[in-house]
Design a protein that fits this description.
Length: 355
C-alpha cells in the first residue's frame, strides 16, 4: 500500500474531460492495488487568467512542487488569443516546466495493431510496426531564448542557445533510454547551418564513448521529417532540441494514428514529473464528450511507472486500454467501420472497469 499526492492541472477546452477520465482509471488502480491517490486541483492557462489574471499563479507552482507528480490536461483556446504575449495561457506551460526544472520530455509513439487503419501511412510502411521514443529538450533553446522586436515593428528575432551542460543532461537521458530499448539513437539537428546544432552534435558525440553499446547516428531535421514519413520503422530513440522535438513528435504521433492516443512525460532531476497528452485543448470539440481520453490515461500510466515506481499498476492500465480496443470500442477520432463508438466518459469508464 502506497500513498501519493497528485496535482491536477485540468486546464482549458477538453482538459477537464480527459483529466477526469484519467482520475476514473487511477481510482480503479488505487482500489485494485490498495493504494491511496490524493488529488489537488490547481489552475493554469486560460482558466487561471479568468480567475486570477495570470496564466500561472504562484499557488499552482507551490502545490505542484509539493506534490509527488503533476497530471496535466491541456491549456489555451481562442478566448485568450488576444492576451498580450507575456500573459497567454501557453506561458503557464513554459513557466511550470521551468519552475519544476523539467528539462526532458519523453514522447513514445507506438502504433497499436488495432489502430493501423487510423494511420495516414500505407500498410506497407507499417509492416515492421512503429515504436519510437522522442526525447525532446524542454527548457532551453529558442522557446526560452532572448526575444527582440524593433520598436517600429520592422524586424523581430528569437535566439536559439544551448550550453554544453544542457545538451549533456538531455543526452544522458537519451542514451539511458536507448540502453533500455533497442540501443539505437538518432541525434537530430541542423548542424550544416546552425552553430548551436554543431555544439549539440559535438557534445552528443563525445558522450557516446560512455555508451559503447548504443549505435549513434545523426540526421538533419529536414531529413528526419522525411524519413519519419517514408520509413518510420528505422527509428528507435530520437534525441533533439526543444523546437525540433516539438515538431517531430507531433509528426511521429500522427503516423501512430491519432494525436488523442499519445502520452508524454516531462522529467527533471527529481522524481516529481509532469505527465500530459501531447495534444492541445481541442477547443473545437470541448464540452461535447467526444474527446479521446486515452492519451491522458496512458500518461497517468507513465506517471505510475516513472515517478512512483508502480510498474505492475502501469502495466494494468496499458493492458486495460488494449483490452477495450480489442473489444472494438472507439472514440470518434479513431473510429472505423464496424467499431462501436463511445464518448470520452464511457471510454474512461470501460478502461477503469477492465483494470
Ligand atoms: P489540438 O491538439 O488542441 O487539436 C488539433 C486537432 O486534434 C483538433 O482537430 C482536435 O479536435 C483534435 N484533438 C486533439 N486532442 C484530441 C483528443 N484527445 N481527442 C480527439 N481529438 C483530439 O491543437 P490546436 O488546435 O493547434 O490547439 C488548440 C489549443 O491548444 C491552442 O490554444 C494551443 O495553443 C493549445 N495547445 C496546448 C497544448 C498543451 O496544453 N500542452 C499543446 C498544444 C496546443
Amino acid at each position: 500500500m502506497a500513498e501519493f499526492n497528485i496535482a491536477l492541472i485540468k486546464g482549458d477546452g477538453i482538459g477537464p474531460e480527459i483529466v477526469n477520465g484519467a482520475v476514473t482509471v487511477l481510482d480503479a488502480v488505487a482500489k485494485k492495488f490498495n493504494h491511496t491517490f490524493s488529488y489537488t486541483d490547481v489552475l493554469m492557462g486560460g482558466c487561471a487568467i479568468d480567475a486570477t489574471g495570470v496564466p500561472l499563479p504562484q499557488e499552482t507552482i507551490d502545490i505542484c512542487k509539493k506534490s509527488d507528480s503533476v497530471l496535466l490536461g491541456a491549456v489555451g483556446g481562442p478566448k485568450w488569443d488576444s492576451q498580450p504575449p507575456a500573459n497567454r495561457p501557453e506561458k503557464g506551460l513554459l513557466g511550470i516546466r521551468k519552475a519544476l526544472g523539467l528539462y526532458s520530455n519523453l514522447r513514445p509513439s507506438i502504433l497499436k495493431p488495432q489502430l493501423k487503419a487510423a494511420s495516414p501511412l500505407k500498410d506497407e510502411k507499417l509492416e515492421n510496426g512503429l515504436d519510437i521514443m522522442v526525447v525532446r529538450e524542454l527548457t532551453g533553446g529558442i522557446y526560452f531564448g532572448k526575444r527582440e522586436r524593433a520598436e517600429d515593428g520592422s524586424w523581430a528575432s528569437d535566439e536559439e542557445r544551448y550550453s554544453v551542460e544542457e545538451v549533456k543532461r538531455i543526452g544522458k537521458i537519451a542514451f539511458e533510454t536507448a540502453m533500455l530499448r533497442n540501443k539505437k539513437l538518432v541525434s537530430v539537428d541542423k548542424a550544416n547551418v546552425l552553430e548551436s546544432s554543431r555544439l549539440w552534435r559535438k557534445t552528443i558525440t563525445e558522450m557516446s564513448a560512455e555508451y559503447p553499446e548504443v549505435t549513434l547516428t545523426y540526421m538533419y531535421v529536414d531529413n528526419a521529417a522525411m524519413q519519419l514519413a517514408i520509413n518510420p520503422a528505422q527509428f528507435d530513440v530520437i534525441v533533439t532540441s526543444n523546437i525540433f522535438g516539438d515538431i517531430l513528435s507531433d509528426l511521429s504521433s500522427a503516423i501512430a494514428g491519432s494525436i488523442g492516443m499519445l502520452p508524454s512525460a516531462s522529467l527533471g532531476a527529481s522524481k516529481c514529473g509532469m505527465y500530459e497528452p501531447i495534444h492541445g485543448s481541442a477547443p473545437d470539440i470541448a464540452g461535447m464528450d467526444i474527446a479521446n481520453p486515452i492519451a491522458t490515461i496512458v500518461s497517468a500510466a507513465m506517471m505510475l511507472e516513472m515517478s512512483f515506481g508502480l510498474i505492475e499498476e502501469a502495466k494494468a492500465i496499458n493492458a486495460a486500454v488494449d483490452k477495450v480496443l480489442d473489444m472494438d470500442y472507439r472514440t470518434t477520432d479513431i473510429m472505423s467501420d464496424g467499431m462501436k463508438k463511445v464518448g470520452c466518459k464511457e471510454m474512461a469508464q470501460l478502461i477503469a472497469d477492465n483494470i
